[in-house]
Amino acid sequence: MYKTDQWELKYFEDEDAIEIIVREDDGRITNGFASIPCYGEDDVSYDDQWEIARLLVAAPKLLEALENIENDANSIPEIIWNMRNNAIAMAKGN
After folding, report:
1. How far, rounded to the nearest angstrom, does the alpha carbon of residue 9 sit from its chain's CA centroid?
2. Could you state, in order of their start, the residue ranges of all structural domains in the chain?
3. What is the pTM of this model?
4. Distance (Å, whole) CA 42 – CA 51
5. Is 60 exposed, middle or buried (0-12, 13-18, 19+ CB in 10 A)?
6. At what angle do helices 78-91 and 46-68 cross, to 10 degrees?
7. Residue 81 in contact with residue 75, Cβ under 8 Å?
8. Is 93 left (phi over 0), alpha (psi -120 to 50) or beta?
9. How far apart are CA 50 and CA 44, in angstroms?
10. What's the CA gap between 88 and 82, in Å, rounded?
């Protein structure tokens, strides 16, 4: 288990899965459960498991940051803006 004041990660070795528990600033607690894609015990190292877990924990904040980017006067190149929009759509399952 890896734990900070804001979040906690639990790895379930028998299921190759990670549970993520996040304590929001307003006191709410949310959690998620993610499977680690692998084909056998040796395919994902311990360090890889925690790297994947850290990315999963960061995802909500990354999404929030993407959503808060504004494109005033179309100052962001179209290809970058489209990448941002596609990432938001993927994160929301659209």
Report:
1. 12
2. 2-91
3. 0.47
4. 16
5. middle
6. 120
7. no
8. left
9. 10
10. 10
Residue type, 61: K
- Tokens coding 40: 């056998």
Token digits of residue 3: 């734990």
Query: Backbone phi, then psi, for 10, in 5-degree steps?
Result: -125, 130
Task: Match 């808060």 to its residue by tokens.
Answer: 68
Which residue did the predictor score with more confidence, 78 or 17?
78
Residue type, 37: P
For 13-65, what is each residue's pLDDT tens digit?
A: 666 666 667 777 777 776 666 555 554 555 556 666 677 777 777 777 778 88
